[in-house]
Amino acid sequence: MRAAGLFKLWPPIILLMADDSVTTPMLFMLAFVVVVQVLALVLTPSFTASDARVFENPSSPTDPLIYIVMIIAVTGVLLLAMRLKRGWLVSGFVLISVASSILYVLSIFLGIVPALFLTGFLMAVLHYYPEWYVIDTIGILICASISALFGISLTTVPAILLLVVLAVYDAISVYKTKHMVVLAEGVINIKAPLLFVVPRTREYSFVHDQSMTFDRMKGEGRGAFFLGLGDAIIPTILVISASWSLQAPVILGVNVPAMGAMIGTYLGFLALMTTSRDKPQAGLPFLNGGALLGFLLACILAGVMPS
């Protein structure tokens, strides 16, 4: 409980949340996206200095295709495990992936030994007390680090290709095949840190909600709203890509194209908030679409061309 108490210090949301409020949880989701993008920008110089790139040639148009194939393959494996009722495989895969991501990032800043201890601490808290604020805190760290890592691995043209294809894929997987909805339900049931969880009431507890199910008709849980980590990661990749690969005027420490992508992401999220809550909604068409439009308009204003 002491470890859980450390995480409980940060979320003022539990004091501000009004019963049956819808707008407030959605605005906190938007705040998560903002924090992820700002933190990713902060992490980028350290990642760049360590030469921690995923792809050797950041300008290659085949790099985003490799990333997309990886996403589809992992999604297929997780869905197969769920269909075969092997939830422990899904849980194990997710926890190993999360631990590896955290360890990799922390080792850049702390060295391998302190990173191992801190990663072990975080995973122990996640395992024994997967409350919503623990999952959200770890989710922010994962999103910011993955966004920074892939953002410095792609120039803007491959990043644009990635955002366009994944927006289309997200729409198909939510509205047509609906397999992403099934995956989200499985992730919620095993309390994996692959979703941001925002309570609808002050009393809500993700740990003690034994009746937790994902309402496929409404796109929400019984006591919380959910946002996939990918909805924060993917548009942020374009933000980071623009921040290091384009020479443009700077505003508040961020160049104009990157700032345009950030503002566009937030406007896209606000547009997502206006959609019907009668069924699950695909986030990437709105978030990626907003990021792309904001980025392109900012490029025009700054007089630079995507590269």
In words, what does this structure look like?
By secondary structure, this protein is mainly α. It has a domain of 211 residues. The chain contains twelve helices and six strands. Helix 4 packs across helix 9 and helix 8 runs antiparallel to helix 10. The N terminus is likely disordered.
Write a brief caption for the model.
The protein is mainly α and 307 residues long. It is built from 12 helices and 6 strands. The strands form 3 sheets. The chain has a two-stranded antiparallel ribbon.
List keywords for this structure.
307 residues; 6 strands; 67% helix; mainly alpha; two-stranded antiparallel ribbon; disordered N terminus
The N- to C-terminal Cα distance equals: 50 Å
Helix content: 55-70%
Structural class of the secondary elements? Answer: mainly alpha
Query: Which shape, going by the Cα principal axes?
Result: globular
* Total count of strands: 6
Order of helices and strands: HHHHHHHHHEEEEHEEHH
Ranges with pLDDT <50 over ≥5 residues?
1-6, 12-20, 215-219
Mean pLDDT over the residues: 83
Count every helix, treating DSSP H or I runs of 4 or more residues as helices. 12
Q: What share of the residues does DSSP label as strand, in percent?
A: 5-15%
- For the report, how would you describe the main beta sheet? 2 strands, antiparallel
